[in-house]
Every structure is written in C-alpha cells, then in structure tokens.
Automatic annotation (TrEMBL):
One of its GO terms (biological process) is lysine biosynthetic process via aminoadipic acid. This is 3079_t:CDS:1. The lineage of its organism: Eukaryota, Fungi, Fungi incertae sedis, Mucoromycota, Glomeromycotina. One of its GO terms (molecular function) is saccharopine dehydrogenase activity. PANTHER family: ALPHA-AMINOADIPIC SEMIALDEHYDE SYNTHASE, MITOCHONDRIAL, SACCHAROPINE DEHYDROGENASE. Residues 7-122 form the Saccharopine dehydrogenase NADP binding domain. Residues 126-427 form the Saccharopine dehydrogenase-like C-terminal domain. Gene3D superfamilies: Dihydrodipicolinate Reductase, domain 2 (3.30.360.10), Domain 3, Saccharopine reductase (1.10.1870.10), NAD(P)-binding Rossmann-like Domain (3.40.50.720). InterPro entries: AASS, NAD(P)-bd_dom_sf, Sacchrp_dh-like_C, Sacchrp_dh_NADP-bd. GO terms for cellular component: cytoplasm. The keyword Glycoprotein does not apply. The keyword Amino-acid biosynthesis applies.
Amino acid sequence: MATDRKILLLGSGFVAGPAVGYLLRRPENHLTIACRRISHAEALANLYPRTTPISLDVNDKQALDEAVSKHDLVISLIPYTAHPLVIESAIKFKKNVVTTSYVSPAMKAFDQAAKENGITILNEVGLDPGIDHLYAIKTINEVHSNGGKIISFISYCGGLPAPEASNNPLGYKFSWSSRGIVEIPGHQLMQVAKPYVIYPAFAFLAYPNRDSTPFREFYNIPEAQTIVRGTLRYQGFTDFVKVLVDIGLLNSSEQDYLTPDAPDITWRDVLAKVLGVTDNSESNLRANITSRISGIPEEDMDRILRGFKWIGLFSDNNVERRGTLLDTLCATLEEKMQYAEGERDMVLLQHKFEVETKDGKRETWTSTLLEYGKPPGPSAMATTVGTPCGIAAQLVLDGVIEKKGVLAPYTLDIINPIIENLEKEGIKVIEEKVEY
Ligand SMILES: *[C@@H]1O[C@H](CO)[C@@H](O)[C@H](O)[C@H]1NC(C)=O
Ligand SMILES: *[C@@H]1O[C@H](CO)[C@@H](O)[C@H](O)[C@H]1NC(C)=O
C-alpha cells in the first residue's frame, strides 16, 4: 500500500473541484482545504472523502507555517500576489508547491532558494496559462527536431458562454469574477480586434494580449517573425466595450458620488454625470452617447444602446456604489451577466503555427481545444484549469516531475506526462496539418 500523502489546498474557488476530484481518486491522498472563511472550505470538503476543512489566513505567517509544515505538497489557488508568502513558507519546510498562476517576478525571485532546498514550485498549470504551453512546446519541439522552423505562432483563447448561452448584448458572462472586464485593454487594443475564424459557426473577434514577446524566449522560437497570444470574444463585445471606454464608464478613479457614504444615486443620474448633461431623460442620454461615438454603424449603435438599457443604465435603479465607475459598473454587470441554471460555458483554445520544414515547404499546423461545461457538473473553465492542476500535483507527488526551482511547463520532461494524463481525462487537443 502506498504511503499516505497529505496535500494542502489553499483556496476553494470554482476551479478547485476538478483538481480535488482528480487527486482524491488515489486512496493514499488526504486533502486539507484551507480558506480564510471556514464555511467556504467546508462547502468544498463536504463533497469529498478524506478532506479536512480549516480556516487559514495566509498573511498570518505562523499559521501558514504550521499548516505548510504538516503537508507533503501545497496547491495554491489563491490570488497570485499571495503566492510569495506561500513559497517562502514552503521553502522553509522543503515542501513542493503547484499553482495555476503566471510566474511573477516576486515568485521567480525564489528560484535559487527552491533549487538549493531541492523543491519544485510548478506554476502555470491551468488552461491559459497551462494547456496552452503544453501544446505550444509539444509542436515547437516536433518542428525543431525535424529540422524545421516556426515562422509564426498565433494563439487565441476564450472562456465564453456556449452559443445558446450568449444571450445578452455583450455575448459574455462572468464565470469567476467581473475583473475579467477590467483586463480589457483600452482604446487602441479594442480597435485592433479583428474577426477570426476557427470554426465558421462561431462569430469570434480576436484581440492581442498586451505583450507576447517574452514567449519568443520561453518557447525557444527566436526564428519566429510573428508571435501573438490573445483573447477571443464574440462579435459585439468589443464595440460595446469601446463605447463604455469612450464615454468614460470604465474610469478607475475614485468619484465623490460613488463613495460608500455618498447618498443613493440612480444609474440614470450617474450616466448624466459621466456625460456632463443635466437633462437625464433616456432620450437625451441616448442622443448624447450617440453624438460622442464615431466609427460605429447606426445599426450597431442601436444594438449597443439596447445593451445599455438591458444593463439598466437608463433606469432609476440605485447603483451599488463601489468608489469608481469601473467597479460600480462591474457590480451591475456581475449581477446581470451570470450563468443561469443549466447554461453551459465553453472554452476554446487554438494555436496556429506557420511552419517551414527542413526542405523549405510551408505548412500550417493547428492545435485546437473545444470544451463545453456539463451542468450541473463543472464548467469547461473549471475542468480545463483544475484538471491539469490536479494532474501536475499528482505527478510532483509521484516524483515523475522532479525538476527543482520555480518552474513553468516549458520543457518536455514536464509537459509530456501532463499531456498523457490529460488525454486520459478526455481533455483532447486536436492537432491538424494543412499543406499548401
Ligand atoms: C476619470 O475620472 C477622473 C475624476 O473624475 C477625471 O479627472 C479623469 O479625467 C477621468 N479619466 C478619463 C480617462 O476619463
Ligand atoms: C452631450 O453633452 C455634452 C456636454 O458634456 C455637450 O457638449 C454636447 O453638446 C451634448 N451632445 C448632445 C447631442 O446633446
């Protein structure tokens, strides 16, 4: 019989379920689920055997040390800014760590200490980052080992409602937090959003993420002329956000009239303030918005204003004052744009590689993952983030992944076993080749 393994899971967000379910298939695994609020830990722990819920504030160094010291491995699903605290404690007690977050400079700073103490801090093992790296490295390696070159690498990923659940003016819903909308880039990036075909049935717009250049080094493709990583949304979303940006509704400065102790204020009045008009009638607000926006065709503008109405921006509903316009709007969006019971989400990831083979032939290679949520089971997002995380944690526990340091899945020794196990879980990336 295998020796008992003790795993400390920090955080119980919706991606935790598939990771926990995966790990607990092995009878030797025991999980402690730690959240600041014990009720959150209990809610998850109640669904599985061999789990213990505890209350833990990771800012309490002593409590964190005590918890970390009693386990074999830590999975940290809390916000990435708290990972350095966890890594510091893990190094002190020589425990391995797995996260789904990007390696931040503050995390990377522990690389040497992790190596010296012989521990593995494996990050970026979710979907994006995570599955995207696995299938980028796999193909790039295959091309290079056959003497070929990567001319261009273009990769887009979207976590979206399934088509039938895209039933609102933004064609978007919040599966975790509305902070998603905050990451939406400003004017310029929204203007470079372009229609993008993966499957003709999906009306996607794609826009590049801020900076993809480090991936030239991370993916070892110095020869690539083009490297783009970006985000997919349904068409309509970007126009809508452009109007929100243009009239100033995504402003992230504090506004006096939105502080918690300011008097109640309706959306109609907030909109009038933002537009700088005194007549707060719906018709005047509509006319004023339209007058400020250029470059959007009339019929699209009608749809966008219908969206404003649907969100309640012309209404006499009081806003939930959250200090800034951005946060106040997010509060309303979060409420309106939830998944209803039984609605599916969808994850689509596609890499497109332009390849030049050893004998000078041009080929296009694609790697595509399309996954739907399975209500009332886990969402596609939870499955595609949580499963690779659970797999990676098991591989570290089993000593299959044994590289030391602060790592991301950029090398074959790490990616191959994760891919092999993902496929066993039915998370399959379809790899195709188009010759010209
Ligand atoms: C955001 O709001 C602040 C305070 O009202 C204002 O000074 C600033 O110009 C606004 N920023 C933009 C980009 O509109
Ligand atoms: C919109 O409001 C601004 C004041 O912020 C004003 O200068 C402009 O004339 C208004 N446009 C329309 C069409 O009412």
